[in-house]
């Protein structure tokens, strides 16, 4: 590929589109740029309007630092406006989409996409989230803790852990009923800590009435668990966060309930058996679930304590999201005013062997909630390619396991999160190359509308994933690389509580990633170093426009050396990460971003950098398993 072809670039940031969220019928301009060259004779914008293919010739717009821009104006008449570029030389036509340049006409799944009329939550642009598993964060009011044996669930008693620093029990011993006493008051008391870290948005794991520590098995969507402080504590937490210009999103599972939910009430553990659908075939809640004549029922993944909700029921839809006093509308409205929802197992929602209403339900949730609160943030849990649900009418974002967590962890030495569950697949341990990492990230982002791509919820760890730094084979340099990649990728970064202090954990089961927060971390040198790294990157991401909304390119610089580039007209940020066992000399394509001359002795952290030029190219010496983060000003 010629150098000019490698430099071709466009996206939906302000450098290349005058308005990435126009109203339908609005006129906008679109630009593309590349290195100045004698090959390209003309550039076309290829669009489709109401199904009809159109070509619009683009005019040279300006030249800057060795780059030439082409521009055209066009009216966005389709609600979903997709386009690609034709680059014409004397003897070839090249085609440029979000994914790559080809010398053949590409299909349209990787086209640039503008969503006319889409209402984005503006606060997301500078957001850095902090995920909190409430029971394990901080014990604010010990009186909230359940008493030993206060209730039984699935045949086991709940218990309280008296010493907050104790490691969690294995599931066979604790049964997700071992409570540490973390609560909403505890989060309120630690808001100064979060602000010192630089956090400006909080994602809470479920807080609704539930017998378990994780609370994905709700008993009542309309009640905050009193063991977490109840509605009064949530109201106070929300007010305190908003006073500090911070945001909060809540977590809910509307795919299933607990088998002890008041609507279902199989064992009568918390409600009288006169209530609920299990014992009462005439119950109005019977249609909320998938019951057979023999009283068997459909569940989430075969878990009998999690019966699946049936969205063929209009009454269920009213109760969950349609009515103003529905569960989803209640908590985003005054006085609670949550800023968004995270939807547990969103990929399963509304579909099973009996009925597939997934698309219909997702679109309705979006419609009703956006009508109630225009800038509400709708975040899905999905570990796979969920691009079909991220096209502007359903979710605003997804937890980016597919385009961030899984490939980044694999590049640094982990087995893919799905493949790790199969013994044969887990036994095969190929070393991921930089090309493979690039392809894994690009293939997914290229299928998303640009505005959605910049809202993807990027994470390294969560309550469902063993913490990366707890693996013996993951070195401190590998962890550092992961953190830098997290904050350099386009999207919204999220820090799982405790990652910033290298919180202890186990790698054998999920309980190992839910250790209680270590509030004595200041006495540990490694924890201090990790905190400092996170703090610097969080503050930079929350303030730096290039990381928030600049262009993005990822490129292999060597077999095991990856380069991430974020850029505006004012600034170029370069991240270079190596997993190679040997020192490498790599070429940095800085001219593609308008950087005429690169000179640096250290990176942003003060680490030594060795650069040299040869034949108008910039080269860098990259040491084994090292990362470099540079911020260069552009003239």
What features would you describe in this structure?
The protein has 15 helices and 31 strands. It is α/β, with parallel strands linked by helices and 635 residues long. The strands form eight sheets. Strands 1, 2, 3, 4, 5, 6, 7 and 8 form an eight-stranded antiparallel sheet that branches. An eight-stranded parallel sheet has the order 22-21-20-17-14-9-24-23. A hairpin with a 2-residue loop joins strand 29 and strand 30. Helix 9 runs antiparallel to helix 11 and helix 13 packs parallel to helix 14. The longest helix has 19 residues. The model has no long low-confidence stretch (mean pLDDT 96).
Index terms:
single chain; 635 residues; alpha/beta; eight-stranded antiparallel sheet; eight-stranded parallel sheet; 15 helices; 31 strands
Rg over CA atoms: 26 Å
Assembly state: single chain
Low-confidence stretches: none
What percentage of residues falls in helices of 4 or more residues? 10-25%
Shape: globular
Proportion in β-strands: 15-25%
Write a short abstract of this structure.
This protein has 635 residues and is of the alpha/beta class. The protein is built from 15 helices and 31 strands. The strands form 8 sheets. Strands 1, 2, 3, 4, 5, 6, 7 and 8 form an 8-stranded antiparallel β-sheet that branches.
């Amino acid at each position: 590929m010629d150098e000019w072809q490698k430099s071709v670039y466009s996206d939906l940031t302000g450098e290349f589109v005058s308005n990435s969220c126009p109203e339908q019928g609005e006129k906008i301009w679109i630009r593309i740029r590349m290195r100045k060259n004698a090959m390209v004779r003309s550039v076309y914008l290829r669009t489709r309007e109401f199904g009809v293919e159109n070509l619009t010739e683009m005019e040279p717009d300006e030249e800057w630092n060795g780059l030439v821009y082409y521009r055209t104006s066009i009216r966005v008449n389709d609600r979903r406006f997709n386009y690609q570029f034709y680059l014409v030389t004397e003897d070839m036509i090249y085609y440029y989409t979000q994914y790559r340049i080809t010398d053949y006409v590409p299909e349209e799944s990787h086209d640039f996409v503008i969503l006319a009329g889409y209402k984005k939550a503006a606060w997301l642009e500078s957001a850095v989230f902090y995920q909190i598993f409430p029971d394990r964060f901080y014990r604010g009011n010990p009186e909230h803790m359940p008493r030993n044996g206060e209730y039984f669930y699935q045949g086991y008693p709940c218990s309280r852990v008296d010493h907050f620093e104790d490691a969690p029990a294995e599931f066979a011993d604790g049964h997700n009923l071992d409570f540490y006493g973390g609560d909403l008051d505890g989060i309120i008391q630690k808001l100064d800590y979060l602000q010192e870290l630089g956090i400006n948005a909080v994602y809470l794991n479920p807080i609704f009435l539930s017998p378990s520590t994780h609370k994905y098995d709700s008993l009542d969507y309309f009640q905050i668990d009193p063991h977490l402080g109840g509605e009064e504590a949530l109201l106070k937490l929300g007010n305190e966060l908003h006073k500090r210009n911070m945001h909060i999103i809540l977590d809910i599972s509307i795919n299933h309930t607990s088998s002890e939910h008041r609507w279902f009430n199989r064992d009568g553990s918390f409600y009288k058996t006169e209530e609920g659908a299990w014992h009462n075939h005439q119950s109005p809640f019977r249609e909320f679930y998938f019951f057979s004549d023999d009283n068997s029922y459909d569940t989430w993944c075969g878990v009998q304590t999690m019966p699946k909700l049936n969205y063929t029921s209009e009454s269920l839809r009213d109760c969950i999201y349609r009515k103003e006093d529905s569960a989803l509308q209640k908590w985003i409205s005054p006085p609670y005013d949550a800023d968004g929802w995270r939807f547990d197992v969103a990929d399963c929602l509304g579909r099973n062997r009996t009925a597939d209403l997934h698309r219909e339900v997702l679109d309705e949730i979006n419609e009703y909630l956006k009508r109630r609160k225009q800038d509400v943030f709708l975040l899905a849990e999905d570990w796979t390619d969920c691009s079909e649900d991220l096209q502007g009418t359903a979710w605003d974002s997804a937890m980016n396991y597919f385009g961030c967590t899984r490939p980044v962890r694999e590049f640094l030495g982990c087995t893919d999160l799905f493949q790790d569950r199969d013994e044969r697949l887990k036994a095969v341990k190929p070393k991921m190359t930089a090309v493979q990492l690039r392809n894994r990230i690009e293939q997914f982002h290229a299928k998303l509308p640009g505005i959605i791509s910049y809202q993807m919820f990027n994470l390294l760890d969560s309550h469902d994933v063993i913490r990366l730094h707890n693996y013996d084979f993951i070195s401190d340099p590998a962890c550092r690389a992961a953190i830098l990649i997290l904050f350099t990728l386009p999207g919204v970064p999220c820090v799982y509580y405790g990652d910033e202090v290298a919180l202890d954990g186990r790698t054998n089961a999920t309980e190992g990633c839910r250790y209680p927060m270590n509030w004595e971390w200041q006495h540990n040198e490694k924890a201090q170093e990790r905190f400092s790294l996170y703090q610097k990157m969080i503050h930079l991401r929350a303030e730096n426009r290039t990381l928030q909304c600049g262009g993005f390119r990822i490129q292999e610089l060597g077999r095991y050396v990856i380069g991430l580039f974020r850029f505006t007209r004012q600034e170029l940020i370069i991240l270079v990460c190596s997993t190679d066992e040997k020192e490498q000399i790599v070429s940095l394509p800085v001219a593609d971003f308008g950087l005429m001359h690169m000179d640096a002795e250290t990176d942003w952290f003060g680490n030594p950098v060795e650069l040299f030029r040869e034949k108008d190219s910039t080269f860098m010496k990259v040491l084994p398993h090292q990362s470099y983060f540079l911020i260069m000003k552009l003239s």
